[in-house]
Specification:
The protein has 11 helices and 5 strands, in the order βααααααβαβααβαβα. With 206 residues, it is α/β, with parallel strands linked by helices. The mean pLDDT is 86.
């Protein structure tokens, strides 16, 4: 029986970057592709820069400084882009509604590979701490999914056991790692699929 549910943040609670929108901005600003930035945007799990941010080795602001430098964007313009990418409109409202629903019957937490400014975003801007019991951020712990140590931290923080825990994550690698750790896990492909799979995993109790 599932007692504890962990939700990923990026790509699940918050929508992934809209590449069509980014492409329009690039064209408008006359930006050419830069390998380091394109890897960061298109394959964040494989980007060493993103991994270092999520490990807390370098601050999130460094990412934006890299974009300013490599793409030669006016900082004021980049700030506008940043606000757009991180606005409340990027939240997946259906997932939030599901999280609120299950929080009545299960212990819930966010388990996210994210940088040093993410707690301020999740709690200050998105008020997610009002929905879940705990927010666990990789940069604060110095370890990222799929490293099993992050799951050990999550279990201790929530006083949970792997066999009674369920993870929703958009990364197949993270899902496989959670399953190897002894948890149940669902890969987020799209909202309807994810909520349907989660309901099945919860044995129809929600």
């Amino acid at each position: 029986m599932i007692k504890t549910i962990f939700f990923d943040f990026g790509g699940v609670i918050i929508k992934p970057p809209n590449y069509k929108w980014i492409k329009r901005w690039k064209k408008h600003l006359g930006i050419s592709d830069h390998p380091e930035i394109m890897e960061m945007l298109e394959n964040s799990n494989g980007s060493q820069l993103v991994q270092d941010v999520c490990l807390g080795k370098i601050p999130e602001d460094h990412l934006w400084a890299v974009m300013t430098d490599k793409w030669r964007i006016n900082p004021a313009v980049l700030s506008q882009v940043r606000r757009k990418l991180l606005s409340k409109r990027q939240l997946n409202q259906h997932i939030l509604a599901f999280m609120t629903e299950v929080a009545a019957d299960f212990d819930t937490a966010i388990l996210s590979n994210a940088g040093d400014q993410s707690r301020q975003l999740m709690e200050g801007t998105y008020q997610l701490h009002q929905i879940v019991d705990e927010i666990i951020i990789s940069a604060e712990e110095g370890v990222i999914k799929p490293d099993p140590r992050i799951f050990e931290i999550a279990m201790a923080r929530m006083n949970a056991a792997p066999e009674t825990s369920l993870l929703l994550d958009d990364s197949q690698e993270n899902v496989a790692a959670a399953q190897a750790f002894g948890m149940r896990a669902v890969q987020f492909i799209d909202t309807q699929q994810a909520i349907g799979k989660m309901r099945v995993a919860l044995d129809g109790k929600v």
